[in-house]
Each structure stands twice: as structure tokens, then as C-alpha cells.
Amino acid sequence: MKYNFLSPCKLNLFLYITGKREDGYHNLQTLFVVLDYGDMMHFENTDDGKIELTTDFGFDVKKNLIYRAAKLLQDKTGCSLGVTISIDKILPQGGGLGGGSANAATTLLVLNKLWNLNLSEKELIEMGTGLGADVPIFIKGKTCFAEGIGEKLVEVDYPQKYYLVVTPDCSVPTAKLFSSDKLKKDSPCRSYNELLALPFENCFTPVVINEYPQVKDLLAKLSVYGKSYMSGSGSSCFVEFNDELSANNALSEFRKTGFKCFVAKSVEQSSVLKKLHQIK
Q: Which pLDDT score is estimated for 175?
């Protein structure tokens, strides 16, 4: 039997780096929202123990996060089942929307269910952290305040909103940004409530707009509709709306500019988790 799941994307509503860790990674504080938009993934159980990713990404399949997530589950649990996976990819790579991380998290969640592994959320988050810092938020699948490298997640209440999300024609390499001496890496640690009361900021934005004029131009264009922000380390940017009609009106106008864009709503729980609860 084939199962289909929407592998969602995320936005960082604010993002601050608070320092460098002994392991070389950086601690951060960020507010994640998960959206009802993303790649469609298809899973079919097999009995031969093989992991097959039939979608061609243009590079070695064993380096793909989807394959690595499935193989990690097999290796950790000794599961003898296999799976055939394909994906209808629409989210951009290097866009700051967490598409690849979401694909990995969706794979962990779905195969945990389909292979009857019964691993806990905590165990899946620990496994996911080894695959990528954004994987845990998609395991959680809810609006969260995140600390550490993104693996320390606390569910928070934040109003559901509509977002116009736009991706310029450039990809921003995160590693390059972290090596920049212009990146602020010493923001003070503050509580979620303290950060909520301040104007939202993304510490990567000043560095990115200095290096990528396309992002600077996009943020200016989006500011016509409200306060515009960049998600993650870029390059995708967004504006928040209170209602769907206003967001879609802005989308209709923005599509004329030729940018890749969509409107999505933040969700209380990801569609992956909702669908998994329905599978007996």
C-alpha cells in the first residue's frame, strides 16, 4: 500500500545567535512556525530490506537526507523491512524553508509508523539532530520556541497567520554566512516572552542583504504589504497577514513580478502528524 504525506516547510519569525559552542556549532534562539505547504512524499513498504529513493536529485542517493534518515532508522533498530520513496519536490533548496530537513523528518516519522518501530518523539528528535539542525522542528510539527542548535524545543502559543512567502533567484550557503565577521553571534539570551515583546529580527538578514542584492530588493518589494522578513539563513522572505484574502491579493500582485511565491497558513500541528494518528 502506498501512503502519501505532505512534507511541510517552516519559517523563522525571529532568529538570534547567542554564542559559539565547544563543538563548533552555534547556539540560537528562534521562533518556528510550520506551514500547510510543502513537498508531497510517497512511501510504499517492501519486505526486501532495500531502501529505494526513485526520485533523481542529481547527486549520490546515499548522500540524500531522505535515504540517510531511512537508513539510520534501519541501522538503529535492526528493522528488516524496506521502503520505496518518491517525492514531488516544490520547495527550493537553500531557501531557508527547511525543505530537505522536513523530508528527513517526514521519513523518520512515517517509517517509525509503517515499520512499527514505536520510537518515542524524544528518540526521533535525537536521531534527527544528527541529520540536521532543522530536522527536530519537523519531528515536533508544532509552533515552537527553539534553543541550542534548534533541538531544544518548547511548544508555544502563537496566533495562526497567513504568510506570503517569496524566493528570489539565488541560493544562500549557510556555512558561508557563519564564517562572516559581519554576522552578529553574541546576542543576549532572553526568555521567549522577552523576545516576543521586542521587534522581531533575523541576525542573518544584514549579512545576506549586503552580499545578495536580490534579497535586499525582495525585502523592499514585500514591505509594501507589511513588515518583511527573511526566513532562516535565506534566501526566502515573507510577510504576515491576518486573513487569507489579503494574503492572496498580495500573492496575485506579486506573481506578476516573476518571483517564485506561495501563500500558506501556519498550523497547530503538521499534516504529517495528523495523518499518522489516523493510520491504524
A: 82
Cell of 19: 554564542
Enclosing H/E stretch for 249: helix 244-255
- Please give the model's pTM, rounded to 2 decimal places: 0.96
Burial class (CB in 10 A: 0-12, 13-18, 19+), 148: middle
Catalytic residue among 10, 113, 140, 161: 10
* From 39, 113, 134, 140, the catalytic residue: 134
Is 227 noted as a catalytic residue in this protein?
A: no
Cα–Cα distance measured from residue 37 to residue 35, given in angstroms and rounded to the nearest whole number: 5
Hey, is 58 helix, strand or coil? coil
How many residues comprise the chain?
280
Cell digits for 132? Answer: 540536521
Alpha-carbon distance of 234 to 278, in angstroms, equals: 35
Active site residue 161: no
Query: What domains are there in the chain, each with its CATH number?
Result: 2-156 (3.30.230.10), 162-265 (3.30.70.890)
φ, ψ dihedrals at 137, nearest 5°: -65, -30
Average pLDDT, the chain: 95
Q: In this structure, what C-alpha cell is assigned to residue 266?
A: 501556519
Contact status, residue 125 vs residue 140, Cβ threshold 8 Å: yes
Give the model's pLDDT for residue 93. Answer: 81
